[in-house]
């Protein structure tokens, strides 16, 4: 009798729980109803395909493209996300339909960091175009050519006497990160960080200050994970964006949590950058603008009200800091990949050395024109290394109005990510994609002639493409010419093969790139 009563009452007892579960599922999956017509892996409970992303990193998009084709949906928390893995569709998103897909999606790691949000990368609509139009002049060829002596002197300081450890080895990725940070420190802030070599060249600030600043920067950058290893509020934000901010507000007050740590570090970083910006604003701006910060401060002064509104102090700090963020890890990763790949391919190394040796004697620094015209094979090597290891494997955009891509109608608010890393390994455009073969970029070769013009886009595409492309290529070429005039490199036996990669906001080498350094006669 009792049993019957209990069994009879069970459904009533469970009803509210079932209703709550149904509500939760509807809340989580309703946004997907609008992109249901796209192919894609089956919807999966709660975390969606995030565990897959955590396990495979951006390779997961290659596996899924093989299965579902050039455009498919991916289940990232509550956010409808569409992956585009085809050059023609990338042209659609990046160029033809730019007006509808011109903004970036804001991944939840960034949405809790104003310092990262207010740079050019994540600003939107009119503010983005006004900012970009103002600062683009700094990336014109004439300005970049003026930076050659500065870049060259920092390169010399970093690479002239490469200090090696036991067995003549260095962790080159560390050395190149210091160099790239120094170059940006000088070009963006006009500050000599002096990380590459001793402190004799550094004017200000003190050793401890600089290394503390860079440690903060590295922590802040590497905490912006795209997988499940970020803070609790970040993971929650993927599931229920509405809850991310309230939870972050609570957790940032709880010592020991990742949110607490990030809040402190980002606050400290902002304070230090604000201090540099305030000092420079007080000093006044002289012409010609020697660095990025003076150019923005100048635009603020001359642009009267509009300039002041556009470049309020928080935006100036974010824009300046963004250079350090966008320009250091990417450039250093590319330099390290070239050295690593060339070290494993003696034929490529021979051809490269021949080209570099045929240029003027060792002491002659190449001009901007030399860099542009006299090193065609070096260009091919860099392109191929950037294809082989695509440092920015995903470009994140968002539909600001309904848009049709690849025959599918995507509603406003859909995230649309261009999978550059997938394009780079597509055998249709790059036969035998896992072979390192710089000649595939020879302009006279058949492969280059038949390739889709947007198959290789490591710097992105369209009006929103990387603003620092020429800046970083200039630094990379100067560095490689300097290095190969003096050294050759061999892979350290202590290094794993293939290299393990880590996926933060860009790719990095999990255990660094270790090389043996051999001096050339
Ligand atoms: C090898 C080096 C680099 C690579 C591979 C790289 C790659 C990229 C990519 C893929 C994007 C997104 C483009 C798109 O949405 O279509 C981007 C944007 C950007 N990059 Fe780079 N980048 C590099 C170096 C630099 C440097 C040195 C700087 C600064 C000095 C820089 C500053 C920026 C900025 C500010 C944006 C945002 C542009 C906008 O939204 O208007 N990057 N970069």
Automatic annotation (TrEMBL):
It comes from the Eukaryota. Gene3D superfamilies: Cytochrome P450. The keyword Membrane applies. It holds the Pfam family p450. GO terms for molecular function: heme binding; iron ion binding; monooxygenase activity; oxidoreductase activity, acting on paired donors, with incorporation or reduction of molecular oxygen. Its cofactor is heme. Heme binds at residue 466. The chain crosses the membrane at residues 12-30. InterPro entries: Cyt_P450 (IPR001128), Cyt_P450_CS (IPR017972), Cyt_P450_E_grp-I (IPR002401), Cyt_P450_sf (IPR036396). Keywords: Heme, Iron, Membrane, Metal-binding, Monooxygenase, Oxidoreductase, Transmembrane, Transmembrane helix. PANTHER family: THROMBOXANE-A SYNTHASE (PTHR24301). Belongs to the cytochrome P450 family. This is Uncharacterized protein. It comes from Spirodela intermedia.
